[in-house]
Design a protein that fits this description.
Elements (H helix, E strand, L loop, with lengths): L4 E6 L3 H4 L10 H17 L4 E5 L34 E3 L6 E2 L14 E2 L1 H11 L8 E7 L4 H11 L4 E9 L5 H8 L9 E3 L1 H7 L1
Parallel strand pairs: 1-2, 1-6, 2-3, 6-7, 7-8
Antiparallel strand pairs: 4-5
Length: 203
């Protein structure tokens, strides 16, 4: 793996990716990740930083209650062998938002609040500082929500941000909608789409 290319997976949890999940929809990116991307990374010893969600209530502005720690829906489909240390767990779409008791199934969750410094420390430890990384490549769910929020946050922190097209989907799972989104305004002001064939050359 190129020492300055880093991968971040976002919200590939059972509630979003697996049949029976509370917000599951068939999405091509999930099959691609399971059958192509993850085996490729495992074969080559390449690790992935991971952002997951704890979407228990209370969550002002969003009445969904899913990805509850300790339950099947919270569990990630990323193989543990390629996971790079501690997950960052967020409480809202943006990765900077956390909560008291986040990720703890025994805790009563508090209301979400922003922790930009905590997220920055996690980035430094698990991805690298902006001067140490050539490219950050994101993948996961969804391009029009949590992936987009993370792209914006990393762009504002000075990273060169890319999204792996084949391993990312819109909420709808519609491939044509995704292609349009990733290659037009406003997304192109914050990040760039990268294809699997091109990423393999970087890895």
């Amino acid at each position: 793996m190129h020492e300055k290319v880093r991968l971040i997976c976002i919200d590939m949890q059972n509630d979003f990716t697996s049949e029976g999940g509370k917000f599951y929809l068939p999405r091509p990116s999930v099959d691609f990740a399971r059958n192509v991307l993850f085996p490729f990374l495992e074969d080559r010893g390449i690790v992935v930083a991971e952002i997951a969600s704890d979407y228990r209530q209370p969550r002002p502005g969003d009445d969904r209650d899913c990805c509850r720690p300790g339950e099947w829906g919270y569990e990630s489909i990323v193989p543990s062998v390629i996971r790079n240390g501690r997950q960052w767990v967020k409480s809202m779409n943006s990765p900077v938002w956390t909560r008291n008791g986040i990720g703890d199934p025994s805790a009563q969750p508090g209301e979400p609040f922003p922790d930009p410094n905590g997220f920055g420390e996690w980035l430094t430890d698990h991805v690298g500082g902006r001067n140490d990384v050539l490219k950050v490549v994101l993948f996961g769910l969804t391009a029009d929500c949590c992936v987009l929020s993370t792209v914006q946050e990393l762009k504002w922190r000075g990273y060169d941000v890319n999204v792996l097209s084949e391993a990312t989907d819109m909420r709808s799972g519609d491939p044509e909608e995704k292609e349009l989104f990733l290659n037009t305004s406003p997304f192109i002001f914050w990040g760039s789409a990268i294809r699997w064939v091109d990423l393999q050359h970087l890895l």
